[in-house]
Design a protein that fits this description.
With about 260 residues, the protein is of the alpha+beta class. Helix content is about 20%, strand content about 30%.
């Protein structure tokens, strides 16, 4: 009953009209007045942001803010975090190409839109990283690699916070998502950028086929999630990586063993 009620309420506010209206507001100069309140509500660190507060022209402009140069040093490890966010869950992908988040089992084939693609990762590992509204929303490459595949799936998006992951309509595999597959020195790597409710926008900033570890590649226009899938199981997550742990761009994520 709780799940049905939650999904029904979200569906009522997740139409094209409401989404478009919110997007117009967040990108309007009127929303500039909401920036100080947003900063206070989420206790956002201002010392590392690129520009003075008064130079942000809208809530969207601030939300998609860049940071000062060298604010996120990149660790000398094979795999680093691509975002600032919370590690929701990490571990091994099941042999039937399924993975679990908040007690919900997901099909990698549904996420990728291809059974064949999912089979490549059947013996690999994964990590789900959630970005709250307070987090820095630029996405960086987790490794050096070449883009071998990139495509968009899905239309609507539902919340990807803890309530959304528990009661939502399969938000990881059902939401609008931009999938990038990289060929790295340590095997294939999927970087799945999952859209969030209302301002369902994932914007690329890197259009080349070569991704460099730590370099910016995209950004979200709303709180969302990045799901990483590793082909290799010869992977050891950093000792600090625990479910619920907050990680920042460039910090060690995993090592090859």
């Amino acid at each position: 009953m709780k799940k049905w009620l939650y999904q029904s309420m979200i569906e009522l506010g997740n139409g094209k009209t409401s989404s478009a209206a919110l997007k117009r507001f967040t990108q309007s100069i009127i929303s500039q007045k909401a920036v100080p309140g947003f900063i206070k509500a989420y206790n956002i660190e201002l010392g590392e942001i690129e520009r003075p507060i008064g130079q942000y022209t809208s809530l969207h402009d601030f939300f998609t803010r860049r940071l000062k140069t060298h604010a996120r040093p990149v660790a000398n490890t094979e795999l680093v975090s691509p975002v600032d966010g919370r590690v929701e869950i990490h571990g091994a992908i099941q042999n039937d190409s399924r993975f679990a988040v908040k007690g919900i089992s997901y099909s990698l084939a549904e996420l990728l839109g291809s059974k064949q693609s999912a089979q490549r990762y059947a013996n690999g590992q994964y990590a789900i990283l959630y970005l709250s509204p307070a987090d820095y929303h630029r996405i960086h490459s987790p490794a050096d690699g070449h883009v071998v595949n990139q495509y968009m799936l899905g239309e609507k998006s539902y919340p990807v916070n803890r309530l959304g992951l528990t009661y939502g309509k399969s938000p990881i595999s059902g939401n609008r998502r931009l999938i990038t597959e990289l060929e790295t020195a340590n095997g294939r790597l999927l970087v799945v950028k999952v859209g969030a409710m209302y301002v369902n926008s994932i914007e690329l900033t890197e259009f080349g086929t070569k991704w460099q570890k730590g370099h910016e590649v995209a950004y979200f226009s709303f709180g969302s999630t990045v799901a990483l899938f590793f082909e290799s199981r010869d992977l050891q997550f950093d000792e600090k990586i625990k479910d619920g742990h907050h990680i920042k761009v460039g910090e060690p994520l995993a090592y090859m063993v």
